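Weekly modeling sync, notes
Attendees: S.R. (lead), two postdocs, one rotation student

Agenda item 3: backlog of single-chain predictions. S.R. asked that every request posted to the team notebook include the full sequence so nobody has to chase files. The rotation student volunteered to paste the first one in as an example of the format we agreed on. Action items at the bottom.

Example entry:
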Amino acid sequence: MTPARCPNVGASFYAANVTTLRDPLVKPLGKKAGETFEKVFGLRTAGDLLQHYPRRYYTRGELTPLDSLHEGDHVTVLALVDQVHRFGAPIDQKYGTKPRKWGGGERLEAVVTDGTGKLQLVFFASVGLHGRQLHSGAIGLFAGTVSSFRGRRQLVHPEYELLPVTSTSPLMTSEIAEEFANELIAVYPASAKLSSWKISKAIDVILDALEAGEDPLPAEIRERYGLWPRELALRAIHRPQDRGDLARARERLKWDEAFTMQAALAQRRLAAAAMPAVPRPAVPDGLAAAFDRRLPFTLTEGQRSVSEEITHDLACAYPMNRLLQGEVGSGKTVVAVRAMLQVVDAGGQAALLAPTEVLAQQHYRSITALLGPLAEAGQLFSRGGGLPAPGAPAPHPPRPPYPPGPAGSEGDDIRPTGGDIPQTRVALLTGSTGVRARRSALTDVFTGDAGILIGTHALLEDQVRFADLGLAVIDEQHRFGVEQRDALRDKTLGSRPHVLVMTATPIPRTVAMTVFGDLEVSTLSELPAGRSPIATHVVPAVERPNFLERAWQRVREEVAGGRQAYVVCPRISGEPGETGADGPGDGDESEAESDAEAAIDTGGQDARRPPLAVLDVAPALAGGPLAGLRVGVMHGKLHPDEKDRVMTAFAAGELDVLVSTTVIEVGVDVPNATAMVIMDAERFGVSQLHQLRGRVGRGQAAGLCLLVTEAPGASPARERLEAVAATGDGFTLSRLDLEQRREGDVLGSAQAGRRSSLRLLRLLADEDLIASARAEATALVAADPQLTAHPAVKAAIDDFLGDRRAEFLDKA
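Predicted structure, as returned to the notebook:
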């Protein structure tokens, strides 16, 4: 689409006036405009500006008869200019404006008619310009919002276009008018300093001189999917001729986003596979085998299948990078423990990173209980040839087998009697760990006496040194960024640890292909035997106050039956200035606030009162509907020792009701807790509500979850709660949750370049497109890993990642 060349104009003229996508904006737009675009929107190049896509389009609308205008309507009318009056200026004999006395600045008024009625046009700026263009007898199209002044309908500063005809020559007027009225007008994301109109003019300048260069999408792929060339798509999305052009342009540019992202992820996967890792093969009669014999239950088919995948990955000489997702209570922790023990059997260590202190402590208690005497060693192995030197690539040789436990001893104490059974030690490290305990944990990890280290962000500190970190397990991956995952992987020397990330928030397929596109995905969809169903009901507290009374009666009934209950609130206290559920740091559950915001609509309750708080609700319940019951309080700002004391008391049945923030959202396992009441439920996200209710129904008795809300019956917030109550399928709810979030909320900065990486692509609506782009990109990168034969694809990845390209691939 280069301009036609004139024989008497040299090539240097065209080179100087051509704009490429990588040219800085100051070249085509000038220094002042270029700097303004960078300051306001962070746009530095012509390509950046052309990717500042319109947020919507409008047409000037169907032509509206003047006798049917209503105040507030945005209309387009075809009319004849009948009169023109200029106020506050000398008479202009040339253009026939008539003077009137008027105090103030200049203004121009014109009266137009279409034969059915009259309409006044008013201009307070550029009066001279409009006075020269508008004259009696001219025919034009006028677009704007109808208002009224002193009983007369008017358009203030309307858009208009005069037709190349007059009242005496109406030839083709209707056809020309229809074309003008139906033209698609782009509306851009704008600011006070850069209006949509100014952005549009700047884009016109770019498009007039654009040389888009080589297309980054290979021709065979374009042909296979019937896609437009990139330059044509860029022109059409800004200046579409019709809706069909717009649809084709968007389809092609969505492919650019999906294909470039997937090509970058494919390169990252290949880079990861090229990294060295110490193989950690399974040992037939090691800790993992002893652990299996101790389990008081039978693994599900899904647990066995996923464990086999992990066992295979750990035995490879390149690092495992696997995402394990599963429903609440599907048994992910047991799978992770088996993987950690396999690594310990092979001479390495494992680290488990949890997002909150409560969850880290819960993992520590549950894992040590599951391991029993297997976790009581004084060193990494109860016998063997010692530890490898830090960073040594070779693992310990497998140890000799030991005799199996007696038949029927599953779940019994199989404490070793002669030192023949391998053992390890489990250490705990959080931000609040005491000085002596911290020193002991750091020493045990450094020397290798501790085969498993469980903790929070404290594991990422520089002082934490491993003897031989072989596996990093990251629980509740959605609480961490790529940076935390990478920081834990950097704890090894000369090789990379295997990585297993886990989430109980089910992930739609397209999110797995994008946010976690550099990971292999395993899914646990089968719940272990014995898990009880959870009944969920919405409690409309305002419409049906008796329902709320009944909710507290149900809690009392559960307690009377020997069981326990949770009450969840969105905030800790009602103090002014409190912005989150908990403060930052270990134990914070700031995800509650982000999920509440992601929920989009809280049914209008935010304007009426602040969210209910634990420190207000707990005493109100203890002195009211739950009087006489043992009520405890839990939130992230409690001292760690107090948190542990409260959770231990609740787990031991010493408390009947626990009033808490979302600090109990994940990992808390109290089988005797059967009821949960979630206050202000509309303030939580869909996936978070699903996680919370997973805390009940973990024993033999059925679970009950009551979603208390003041959201109106027809509000989106209420519909969201009804959807949660209607299904226990976390994967269905995850899609609903994704529909209600902005793409940036989903992607965060995990794969982003300088700015948000996705502009047109929508993870749910474009699921099939993303899958196709992933397959094409994976095949292309497999055939050409360095993209030497596809420089345009490499350049697109560079633009996509910006300055983070080297870091992105280095941290594979």
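Discussion: group reviewed the output briefly. The first strand starts at residue 56 and ends at 58.
Action items: rotation student to repeat for the remaining queue; S.R. to check formatting next week.
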